[in-house]
């Protein structure tokens, strides 16, 4: 395993761990915010789910700009 593939594996592991934690606590977070405002809870839930995809989209753009 070379240095580049090792760093890619570490980055993927960190992203998946972070996303897993967010998705695990998402219902608790949304229900807590929903006590104050249901609309805000929906907005926060959608933003947290979209952040998962945004990370991969940004990483793909970065990789494409580097020519890999």
UniProtKB/TrEMBL annotation:
Please provide the record's keywords in A-Z order.
Answer: Membrane, Transmembrane, Transmembrane helix
Name the chain's protein.
Type II secretory pathway component PulF
- Where would you find the membrane-spanning parts of this chain? 12-34, 40-58
- Asked if the Swiss-Prot or TrEMBL record annotates the protein with the keyword Transmembrane helix, the reply is yes
Q: Which organism is it from?
A: Rhizobium pisi
Q: Which InterPro entries match?
A: MFS_trans_sf
């Amino acid at each position: 395993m070379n240095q580049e593939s090792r760093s890619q594996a570490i980055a993927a592991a960190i992203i998946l761990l972070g996303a897993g934690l967010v998705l695990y606590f998402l219902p608790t977070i949304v229900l807590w915010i929903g006590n104050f405002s249901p609309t805000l809870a929906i907005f926060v839930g959608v933003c947290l789910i979209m952040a998962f995809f945004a990370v991969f989209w940004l990483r793909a753009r970065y990789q494409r700009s580097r020519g890999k």
